[in-house]
Amino acid sequence: MSDCIFCKIADKKIPSKIIHEDDKAVAFEDVNPQAPTHVLVIPRKHVASIAELNAADSGLLSHLMLTGAAMAKQKGIADSGYRLVVNTGKHGGQTVFHLHVHVLGGRPMHWPPG
Ligand code: AMP
How many angstroms separate the CA atoms of 35 and 12, rounded? Predict the structure, then answer.
């Protein structure tokens, strides 16, 4: 989608710190990190949110989550633990409407979330 900032990152039309890419997904450093490790994993194809996916997209969703886990390993936080987060919609705190999985770690996480 031409005016989507994450589509532009995936297409390398704007700069970002990409740490992984494959045919279906791109992972890059969050520009405003909320933890020592904060990576975003996005699908290459534009999907506004997880609410738009259905059973036919289960392969894509699983790829995003497993890529998140692989990024945690790559960043050295797999053993200490981490959180994968998919903010969805207004009450979910979503601000960028291109599906993304946050990979957060490097410090203890709290529960319940704010
Ligand atoms: P959410 O609030 O779940 O929609 O998360 C959007 C995330 O995208 C936030 O953590 C932002 O800091 C991050 N973000 C926004 N623009 C950029 C960008 N150009 N490069 C990297 N991360 C970004």
Answer: 25
